[in-house]
Amino acid sequence: MRRTRGHGTREQEPRRADRARLPLRRSLLGRLLAVSALVAACSVAATAWIAVQTTSGAIKQEQGQNLTADARIYDTLLEYAARNPTWEGVGATVRKLARESGRRVALTTQGRQPLADSATEPTAPALPPQASAVVDPLSVDTVLAARGADGQGTGADRIDPRAVGPFRLSAADSRALRRTADDKVACLNRAGIASDVVVGASGRPRVQIVGNDPGRALGTRCDLAALDTPTRSERKALDALSELADACLKRQGREGVRLNNDLSWGDPAPVAVPGEPGAVVPRPVPAPRDAPAEQAAPSVEMPELTGENDRAIASCVGTARSEQLSSYVASPALLFIGDEGGATLPGFDLSPANTARIAGAAALVLALTVGASVFAGARLVRPLHALTGAAQRMRDGEQPASVPVSGDDEVGRLAAAFNDMSAHRARLEEQRKAMVSDVAHELRTPLSNIRGWLEAAQDGLADPDPAFVSSLLEEAVLLQHIIDDLQDLAAADAGALRLHPEPVEVRELLGQVAAAHQARAENAGVTLAVTATAPGPALSADPVRLRQAVGNLVSNAVRHTPEGGRVTLRAYVAGRDASGPYASEEGGGTVVMGGGTVVIEVTDTGSGIPADDLPHVFDRFWRAEKSRSRRTGGSGLGLAIVRKLVEAHGGTAEATSTEGEGSTFALRLPAAEPPSAP
């Protein structure tokens, strides 16, 4: 026995090893976590992408709108500074701009002394430390100026073209030039050339050819050169500007230059004068070789035209312009633009800090998702682990135990079904063990009797007379009966029980069974009666197997009915209306019944069966008398065989009993179809 147990222990060691938990990557929890993390990551990424795209678009749109509004504010204030020598009276313009843009506009000196502020409340928030722009007509912010001028910026010239200073024409000069310009336009129109009069910031009109092709006017008699002749005030301002530029060049050891109306140096070129739209970047214009002497004669000796000299001349001309215009324009001022609450221009900067915040928020969402998945997965996997452990214990032959049922969900129902299966398996195991014990006991008794008689005859203690042989034959028949019963049950379980159905007259079959058991009933002092009437119900069945089933019921009833009792066999049809040739004795009279279910009842007036034992009467080897005495009971296979035989015929077997009054066993079989009328 020790060797066997040791071998069994060695066999169970790998089985216990199988109970080890699966690796996380192969477990349901691991897969659930992986799927949840993937879904969460994709959701976070998709949500973040959509949010970034939407927010970025909205912010860019808002920034564009704000930047356009700010550029308009800057351009308006820049125009004010270019046309006025001081900031006095700018308050009305600032308040108007604030109303139109819905934002706070403030101007201060470069020392942050307030000049004008649209927020006049005492509780107005302080200005931000950094200004939005510097309003200086002599040093223009080209980006804001380009936006404020609808894309028409100042190019490389940092001086606002509206800052004309001493080049501004008087009203009389402007009117005179306007009349001349109107005449030229009329002349061009008569020549079929569309043109308009455009008045610049200085008040000087000029003729603009529609189509921007001024060369078309050269072939006409409309001389436009009269409009390019500077007035007395312009010549005076140009001379002053030339003196300032010459002084700058002399400080650098360079020779002076002669400036043209368009502030270029060299021979005059037909381009705009200061303050007019067009190119105002100083550039050299070499004099043509065939020009008249009076036009080519410079007022001063021209320096050598080289790239280095040009850069120096351009720098000095720009410095001279700023110096000349400084007394005609307002001093530089700091411009502050923000919302009414004091905040500056809104923006969205994806800085490292913002990136870290976004990554942190995504990580938090992912962590919460994984945490929720772990919690839900643990609650889901815990009962599955319990089910797996219980199933493995059952496989190893340990005592099955029920698993806790957590709820009425799918897992809870699985646990409940497993508990039912475990309990059913435990009952089957107990029945199997009891069956093995009962089969051994049932076979041991006749074999022991046969062996005892044979050993007695061998020892000379018994004579092999007819009584001796009869006793051995009786034990052999009993042994054969048990073996036949077991074979019938095995065939029924395997579905191999062969039936030979044929029309059966139930009244006749009951009479045959009663006749076969009449002698035994008389010996037991029990009355055996059949109450089925002629012709009785008919059915299609195997008569041999049906007699076997009814005989087992009658034998069992006679055995458990005391002397003076009564066993009654009865047959009738149930489940159809009174329309056929079959009869029933319900209600004390004959009732004609149609085809339906044939019910065969065996009723006794014995001691009855306790209610707790009634569900087990058809179990194999079950006996009310646990001592298994041959005097009080049979092998315990008779009723089990009855149920299997009836089920093979497509019927059912049932039992009802009242303890102390008797029992009734009923076989319900499908009735044969009634014969057709001739």
Question: Can you tell me about this structure?
Answer:
- It is a single chain.
- Helices cover 47% and strands 12% of the residues.
- It is rod-shaped and about 170 Å long.
- It has 678 residues and is of the alpha+beta class.
- A hairpin with a 4-residue loop joins strand 1 (104-109) and strand 2 (114-117).
- The strands form 6 sheets. The protein has a 5-stranded mixed beta sheet. The protein has a 4-stranded antiparallel beta sheet with strand order 2-1-8-3, with helices on one face. It has a two-stranded antiparallel ribbon with strand order 4-5.
- Helix 2 (28-83) packs antiparallel against helix 9.
- It has helices at residues 2-18, 28-83, 90-101, 142-148, 171-190, 232-251, 293-296, 307-325, 352-395, 410-458, 466-494, 506-516, 518-523, 543-559, 638-648, and strands at residues 104-109, 114-117, 133-135, 195-199, 205-209, 265-266, 284-285, 333-338, 502-505, 527-530, 538-541, 566-574, 582-584, 591-593, 597-604, 652-658, 662-670.
- Its main location: membrane.
- Keywords: Kinase, Membrane, Phosphoprotein, Transferase, Transmembrane, Transmembrane helix, Two-component regulatory system.
- It holds the Pfam family HATPase_c.
- Residues 103-130, 265-304, 650-678 are annotated as: Disordered.
